[in-house]
Each structure stands twice: as C-alpha cells, then as structure tokens.
Amino acid sequence: MPDIDLNGGWMPLTLPQLDFWEEFTFHPDQPVSTVAHFIDIDGDVDVDALKRAIGQTIREADILSARFHAPAECAAPRQICDPDFVPELSVVDLSDQPGPISAAKDHMKRDLKAPLDLRRDRLSAHILYRVGRSRYLWYIRAHHIIVDGYGLALIEQRCAELYNHFLGQADAGTPFHPFAGFLTEEDHYQKSSKWQKDRAYWADYFASASGIDVLERGDEDYGEPGFHQTTPLPKEFSKALLASAKAADLGWPDLLTLLSGLYIFGAVPAARNEDSSTLTLWLPFMSRWGSVGANLPALLVNILPFEMKVHRSERLLDFLTRSADELRRQRRHSRFRIEQISKDQGLAEGSRYFFSPLINVLPFKSPAFAGCQTRRNILDSGPADGFNLTFRGEDDASAMSLAIDADPAMTGREEFERHMSELPAFLSRLLKPDNLQRPLRNLIGENRSAAFLEAAAQRFPY
C-alpha cells in the first residue's frame, strides 16, 4: 500500500474500499451499501452541548470527510480526508408537527433512498431532529466505503463521551486516530511475516473448503427489495443465553453464532449439500483489536468463511467446545482480507464470494448521554446476500433482537415467516441446560423445500 500521505494528501483505497468502489461502478445510480442509525435521546437534553459534541465527533472522525477521485478510467481511485469536505450538522425542528417522530423518520427514509455518487457527493450526513420539548433524534448516515456498523457505534460512543464531558460529568476521553495512521499500520502488516503466515493459513483453509459460491457483480439485484423483519427477544432468552454460555465456558456471541449455525444446517434448504456434514457460514470479524482501528471509525470489518462441521453423534457441549476452539484459531488470522483471499483464489475481476448464509452478532453497548434515556435504532446496514441473521444487543446480552434478511429468489414468503417463528423457538429449546449433554441428532431437524432447492440450482447451476 504505497504513497500514504500522513499530511492530508491523496491516499490509496484499502482492499474493502476498492470492493465497494467496484460495486459503485456496476450500480452507480442505485442507493446501495448505505449504513444508517438514529439515536433517540429523551430527557434533560442540553442541546448546545449536544450540538457541540456531535460537531467535534464529526471533525475527529476524519474519514467522514473523505473525497474519492479516479484520475482516469483505468487508473486506481484515490482518496483524501478533506477538512473542507467535513459534513455539517443540520438541525430540524419538527416538534410543532402532529406526528414529529413519523415526520423525522420520513425525512430519514427519503435521505436513504437517494443515490450517492462516490466521485462528488459528501458521503456522510448528520441531522438532529427535535421531536419534542426535550427529545431529539440524531440521524447518522454514511456510505459503507467509509465506515462500517461498528464505526457508527464508535461515533455514537465518542459523542456521548464528549457530551458528558461538556456537562462536567466525565473526562474528555481519547480522540479518534487519524485514518492515515491505519493505512500506515496496514502497510506494515502487509509487509510482515504475520501477513505471510495468515496468507498460508487461508490458502490451506480454502484448499479443503467446499460449497463456497461466487457471485458476478452484474448478477446483483438491488432493484427488488428482499424480505426483512426484526423481532425483539424476551429477557428470558438473554438470561438463558448467559447461563448456557457460562455452563459451556464460552462467550455468549460465539454460543449464539454456533446454535444459529445448527438451525441453518437443519432447517434452511440448500444451505449445504444433502449428504454433507459441513456447512459454510460467513462470519463478520471486526479486525480491530490490537490495532489503531480499535478507536477509529472506518470500514475495517472483514467477512470470512467458517466451515462448521456437524457430527450427529456428538453431544451439543462437545460440538460447542470444538467449534469455539476452531473459531478462536481462525480469529488469529482474521486480519487477512477476504478481498486478498479472492485474488489468491483466482476470482476474476467483477466477481466476489456469495456471503450466505451469514450470521452477525453485534454486542454493541448503547451510548449513554447524562440525564437522558437513549436508544439506538438501526435503519440500514447495507444489502445482504441470500440468507442473513443479525443479532443485536447490549454487551451483557440484554435488549436482544433478531433480524432476518432473505432473498425472495431463494426463500419464499411462507418459508421466511416460518424462520421468523421457528428460529427463536429452536434457540430457546437448545438453551435449556439438559440439552448440552444430548447428541446433535436429537436436537436438529431436517426440512428441505423443493422450491428452494430449484431456485438455488437456477442461481448457482455449477
């Protein structure tokens, strides 16, 4: 990654940024790959301190001011964090309208539907809606090429930290690292022996992997909306999850990932070959720990395959222990980018791996603004492939929700609704203490849909 200008000049794009740039070249007129949240802040709000905190947070997160430029059609695009391109905070007072919250959400939806031109538009927006005497909705939107979902969570946490500081109730905290610092760190990694070891690990991993599908960029269909539904999970579910995680001696996000994988293995048609005991799951990795990226909002998330092996005679506890060990081994190599793996595996330009089924567990702590009740609301996480599960909750597993996204070409409405009801029931059943000692053959079922198999065969005829 040469020519990194630490003094505010033009810089290269990272591998995941290049992937989104390529996506943009195929779909320049469609509003795809946008991430957006809004924070509901209700209480004794000091609006001046809030605006000041948002403004400073935006300036600290220099990637939000990114501009992109491709000097020629065949030349590599470049980027610059331009202080003159910093997004401005807009304040919109809707408190005198009959339905201020609905009006604010309508504003947000219109903004989300607008295409973003990576060559000239500001790629992030921040709007503070006043929807009551002391209630505000802070809307944050950005293109995925500059920030991921965890990056937005970092922005929210930093803003709350600054807000509390301006009220005299907390320290100022640590500003974000500059984006150029991450590029320098990434350049060092790519020249290191660790990069070589990680590359060898993934070469061996893919040499023995099977059932990993490839998608051509031109085949992406962003015109037809997929099925999407979010449902809250009860407090009893969170308690059972924590208890089972303790009994199995593993973190609750890994437990939730693996149990969901078992559901997909047994209940989602065409997720694997009929006679296979292995299911390839796609799992996001934050790729931030031990890096300046731990305090840097940017696009750093990686997505990597996990070959989940299912032995029906194995006890659930043994399956969880073995699989969690494999996950930990894999995480030691999780900085190595899927885009580099694609190149090493010989994927042609204009193609990428089909990230489905994907399981994403997001234990993000909500920001705490002093004297206020706050709640994070997810508006958009970008497009999803095939069949995706997303669990969101606090870091202590409270306030848990489940979202399922499915491609209508592969999952019918009736089947989608069945998953929405059956998956929580399946997870709750497996979280009962006695089930840890039961063999998998007694816990997972088979449910194959001929219509789904036919649709999958048409999409992936090879």
Protein described:
With 462 residues, this protein is α+β, with helices and mostly antiparallel strands. The chain folds into 2 domains: 11-180, Chloramphenicol acetyltransferase-like domain (Chloramphenicol Acetyltransferase, 2-Layer Sandwich), CATH 3.30.559; 193-459, Nonribosomal peptide synthetase, condensation domain (Chloramphenicol Acetyltransferase, 2-Layer Sandwich). 36% of the residues lie in helices and 22% in strands. The protein contains 12 helices and 16 strands. It has helices at 15-26, 47-60, 100-113, 149-166, 179-190, 193-208, 235-248, 252-267, 316-331, 338-344, 413-430, 450-459; strands at residues 11-12, 34-43, 66-69, 78-81, 89-93, 124-132, 135-143, 214-216, 227-232, 278-285, 302-309, 351-353, 358-363, 372-381, 387-393, 401-406. The strands form 5 sheets. The chain has a 5-stranded mixed sheet with strand order 5-6-7-2-14, with helices on both faces. A 4-stranded mixed sheet has the order 9-16-15-13, covered by helices on one side. Strands 1-4-3 form a 3-stranded antiparallel sheet, covered by helices on one side. The radius of gyration is 22 Å and the shape is globular. Mean pLDDT is 90; it is low at 446-462.
Gist of the model:
This protein has 462 residues and is of the alpha+beta class.
> CATH superfamily name of the largest domain?
Nonribosomal peptide synthetase, condensation domain
| Distance between the ends | 36 Å
Average pLDDT across residues? 90
Taking the sheet with the most strands, its summary is: 5 strands, mixed
Give the overall shape: globular
How are the strands of the biggest sheet laid out side by side?
5-6-7-2-14
The chain-level structural class is alpha+beta
Q: Which regions have little confidence, pLDDT < 50, spanning 5+ residues?
A: 446-462
| Total domain units | 2
CATH architecture of the largest domain: 2-Layer Sandwich
Total helical segments? 12
The total beta strand count reads 16
CATH topology of the largest domain: Chloramphenicol Acetyltransferase
- Please provide the ordered H/E string of secondary-structure elements: EHEHEEEHEEHHHEEHHEEHHEEEEEHH
Secondary structure: helix percent: 25-40%
Strand content: 15-25%
